[in-house]
Amino acid sequence: MDRNNCPHMSSCEMYQLLSLAGTLKAWQVRYCQSEFTTCARYQRSAEGRHVPINLMPNGALLKKPDKG
After folding, report:
1. What are the angstrom distances between the C-alpha of 50 and each of 13, 21, 53, 67?
2. Residue 65: inside a domain, yes or no?
3. Is 47 among the domain residues?
4. Considering its fold, how many domains does the chain have in total?
5. If 0-12 CB within 10 Å is exposed, 13-18 middle and 19+ buried, where does residue 16 land?
6. Which phi and psi (to 5°) does residue 61 adopt?
């Protein structure tokens, strides 16, 4: 594994979502493959805190779809 890569890439749900959309590749490059210590998901995980599935690497929360 490249030492610049986030050690949580294989288990991160957001990484999997970013993989599905080519337009989000820039997020993968920045947060998963180079500056992973700036990723809000990585930071929470490193602190042993729960990482919500809708937490974006920049700390924003994706709106969950309404159930109805």
Report:
1. 13, 25, 9, 23
2. no
3. yes
4. 1
5. exposed
6. -105, 130
63: in domain: no
Per-residue confidence band for 52, with pLDDT thresholds at 50, 70 and 90: very high
Distant-in-sequence, close-in-space partners of 19: CB < 8 Å, separation ≥ 6: 28
Rg (CA), the chain: 12
- CB atoms inside a 10 Å sphere around CB 64: 9
**What pLDDT is stored for residue 23 in this prediction?**
76
Task: Identify the helix (H) or strand (E) that includes residue 20.
Answer: helix 13-20
Alpha carbons within 13 A on the beta-carbon side of 65 = 2
**Structural domain includes residue 13:** yes
pLDDT tens-digit series, residues 5-43? 999 988 888 888 887 777 788 888 899 999 999 999 999
